[in-house]
Amino acid sequence: MGFAVSHLLIIILAVLLPLSIFLWLRRNSSSSSKSSYRSLRVASPVLNFFIIMAMIGKPILEYFKEHQSQADAINPAFFLPVVFFFLVCIYAAVGASIYFYYRAIENINFFAGARMRAPGTSLLMVVPVVNLLAMPYVLYFTYYRSMALLPAHHVSKIRAVALAIGTFVLLVASIAFGLASGNDAIRSDDFDSVSLSLVATCAGLAAGILYTRIVSRVFKAQEAYATYIGAVLHSDASNEAVRSGALDALRSIAVALLVGSGIFTLFSPTQASYWVASVVQTVRVKVAEPANSSPTPDEHLHAMAAELTKSGRQQLDQITWLEGATAEAGRFIYQYSVSAERQPAENATHFLNQIRPNIVRGYCTDPSFQVFRDLNAAVVYRYANADRSPLGEVVVSNADCAS
User: Fold this and answer.
1) Is 122 exposed, middle or buried (0-12, 13-18, 19+ CB in 10 A)?
2) What is the average pLDDT across 9-29?
3) How far is CA 161 from the centre of its chain?
4) Rounded to two decimals, what is the model's pTM?
5) How confident is the model at residue 70 (pLDDT cuts 50, 70, 90)?
């Protein structure tokens, strides 16, 4: 239900937002016959807020889209407003970017006393395919031209290009890996949804930090120069405030850590997934239970699943692989894959019915399954084809031992 509403909002916002921004900018542009400086004092922090919220909300929305059952279990009174807020932030970030760079280019033209670039160029940032060139160029042009206004803070074209392209590449990587994390056809044995989502999150947050750096410096440089030439009567901006050393250093460190984490995940996806699962499980335990309390049955199941998955993929016979295990409320799930050719539905049903008696016998009599019987936990044997499409599952519990 939550994502059905979300999809409707996406369609509405995707159509109406760029159109309304275009009409509004066109009206305001045509209504003012004389060019003048317009401060970005409000637009800059507003855009930075939406960018940060969008980068935080994007992986959250992708996670719940991938884990629909968990989304459905959350109270809609809480879940829907959160989904709506992050969706609004994502699309508001797009709209605010168009507005910010439109005004920034207008200001550059005003300072130069000539039409350096058409302000409407900012609209190309949301045009598919075209934006692959337009977005990094707009970022470069506004950043380089704005910083060039202040000789003390002038940057080289190479540094401006590197910052613009780096921001754009990280943003594209975030979107690409985010889409891959929810696509079964793209995921492989090494790269599961967790590792792909982790790369997407690291790239997105790094892109967001670099993007906000560009926005803040463009505003501060233009505001400082406008104050210098008397285009504004009073401003807190100054040449010294364009670059804030401590904050910029922290941003650079954060970007380096995020990019490094993403690269590490690309080279060691299994290890990264295990660490993330361990951290999530630890947080769940700390939040769910007070100090010194005994573990719950579900915590036992999660711990056993994490330990089994840590061992990696295991081949059981010529065609069967144990991929790992997961746990959910009262259920321990073994995940198997079968490398044989994909079978018709009736063959899969026959296969599951054939192996079920042995599975039930093992659950009820094998000492190694005593822990599941003591926890009153169901054990699920979930099978998938080589192409990751579901084959079926067998579920056993204490109820099967009594029959």
Assistant:
1) buried
2) 52
3) 25
4) 0.63
5) low
